[in-house]
Here is the input.
Amino acid sequence: MYNTTTLNAPDGLPYGLCICFANVPAAMVTDYRWAVQIALPTTGYPMFRRKVNKGEWTSWLPMSRPAA
Here is the structure.
């Protein structure tokens, strides 16, 4: 779960659940670990971000947008 005091939560989506998937059970700074986080907020659209190897987390990106 995340809330208004959680670090690195998606901006503007103060409450929700966050799920993390990784290709291997290793430390976050391992050369061969890829991780993806999916945020399921109580309002708004689901968001995701990823971290590859020893790189930084990407920005949170929406998984869907309203139809044009």
